[in-house]
Specification:
about 40% helix, mainly alpha, two-stranded antiparallel ribbon, flat
């Protein structure tokens, strides 16, 4: 289910553990979400505030979906 009303797939290396966790549980699907971070691990590291706001909306919608199915 697309929680934002639009779909976009981005793939990039970010050192996330979702693949490691999923690899330990056959059949488990995992995703990693997060805001747009620019210049990670550098003195100029910054985050897109617009992408943080979007993540808040996505997480709220996911929580609503989880609680409506319990």
């Amino acid at each position: 289910t697309d929680v934002t009303g639009r779909s976009r797939f981005l793939g990039y290396h970010a050192g996330l553990e979702a693949g490691i966790v999923a690899g330990k549980r056959p059949g488990l699907s995992a995703v990693a979400i997060g805001p747009l971070i620019l210049g990670a691990h550098t003195p100029g590291e910054r985050v897109s505030l617009e992408s943080v706001a979007q993540e808040v909306l996505v997480i709220r919608k996911l929580l609503e979906m989880c609680t409506s199915h319990s």
